[in-house]
Amino acid sequence: MDQLACIVEKLNQTFSVYSFGRDPAFSRYIPQVYDKVNWKNEFEPDFVEYFNGLMIKGGPYVKNVFLAVFPTEHILEQFIEESSEGDLLFMHHPLLMECGDPKGKWGRGFVPVDQKYIHAIKRKKLSVYTCHAPMDYHRTLGTNAAIIKALKWKAVDYVVSGKYGQLGIICSIDPVSTDEMIDQLTETFHIPYVDFEGVKHHHIQKVAVIAGCGDKVSWMEKAERKGVQAYISGEIHCHIDNDYGRKKYQEMSQYASKTKMSLIGVSHSASEFLVKRTLLNQWISENFDVKTILLPQEKWWL
Fold first, then answer.
1. Per residue, what are the HEC states of 205-222?
2. Tens digit of pLDDT for each residue in 50-74?
3. Which residue, of 48, 150, 237, 257, has the fewest CB within 10 Å?
4. In sequence order, which residues have a C-beta less than 8 Å from that of residue 242 and are 6 or more positions away?
5. What domains appear along the chain, each with residue ranges and CATH number?
């Protein structure tokens, strides 16, 4: 058992939550998606400012840290049912994002956490901590770093660089075919299938890795200009059932018809859960007197 304050302070320092500033994505999406909820009163003051960090504050002592990516109803119900007072849910996202299934139903996009779950978490004196962009950019405990380490690839370059650092890592790997790579990825991410576009190769030696939403044509073009043969991301196609999603899908389809790369999507959630299952699971166990409990998403393509 460890103090919540100690855990939060260590997480904030490790991921530079305050110096990173306002999360570029969720500082926009949370006010939009929670527009019918008085979210500024529901969530902790620092979270309202930075959109990362301690979102809901519960009891002072933590026995178990639950690790997840998205707050699906299944994840939240499991957390509330299996937790004890004071326990902490550490997620990558403060909102559910239904990205859609390449072999099934398209998603709804961003979906807020139902207030009944927020109230149930507070009644049981549980805590919720989320860390999005700072974790994506983190060099050793980040979503991309976890993928590279799990696959034992060597980082040699990056895809894009901006205000927050480098995003998207280019790696050199031992020669492998596209089909062999797909088999390796389905096993690593525990997924039933990938979303594939582009061209298959017999010998791939240079890959780009971008966890989460890497379905940006401009990023793919930059990677291809750098000699990348396979582009791996959580999302290759946007399968969100609205005008935005259909526009993105069309743009991606046009690019995919002319690219020479293998484009491989491993699901948004699975691509980001890997860091929870591996690097963060170990890091939390080494730094705190708590038990970690993994909460994989009930369906990776959602």
1. EEEEEECCCCCCHHHHHH
2. 999 999 999 999 999 999 999 999 9
3. 257
4. 109
5. 2-135 (3.40.1390), 139-268 (3.40.1390.30)
